């Protein structure tokens, strides 16, 4: 038993929880795929809930980190490029981390009832971080004079709704071309509404 086994358990659990749901995934199934006996899981995790919340939090954290890296990279870009960059970054994350993306989206929308509060707490932390980044870019746009003077909260909420809608669209369409067209059109309309 070692770190490699723990990481393999998390990797398999993330994929299976994302594909089959919490209720549809048995610890024995995870253990079998990793090549260990089911009791071995308890050397690393208290129970199924602990394993699930570990992989859910790590998936959410990997998304947060990926978006936060953008805020550092975008300091030299315009507000328009920075906001558009958030949408591109989200799209890249979905492509690079399909298992993490699936588990986050599935359980933020449909959490198991007994984990609802815990998942909501993790989501609200992520939402607060994302809101702060978007607020910075919008304020920068107002300072640059490219976003007209209006409620920052209104623009942040509209942008978060745009991101949520695009999240769902990503999982609806298998065609990269269709998704990218929808992303570009959605941002174009958002920017027209926000800009001076």
Q: How would you summarize the topology of this molecule?
A:
Layout: H1 3-20, H2 27-34, H3 48-73, H4 79-96, H5 98-109, H6 116-144, H7 152-172, H8 176-194
Helix pairs in contact: 1-2, 1-3, 1-5, 3-4, 3-5, 3-6, 4-5, 4-6, 4-7, 6-7, 7-8
Written account of the structure:
This protein has 196 residues and is mainly α. The protein is 77% helix and 0% strand. The chain is built from eight helices and no strands. The protein has helices spanning 3-20, 27-34, 48-73, 79-96, 98-109, 116-144, 152-172, 176-194. Helix 7 (152-172) runs antiparallel to helix 8. The radius of gyration is 19 Å and the shape is elongated. The mean pLDDT is 91.
Summary?
The protein has helices at 3-20, 27-34, 48-73, 79-96, 98-109, 116-144, 152-172, 176-194. It is mainly α.
Q: Any idea what the shape is?
A: elongated
Number of helices: 8
> How many beta-strand runs?
0
Poorly predicted runs = none
* Beta-strand content estimate: under 5%
Distance between the termini: 60 Å
Overall pLDDT confidence:
91
Order of helices and strands: HHHHHHHH
Biggest beta sheet summary = none
The percent of residues in helical segments reads: over 70%
- Give Rg in angstroms: 19 Å
Structural class: mainly alpha
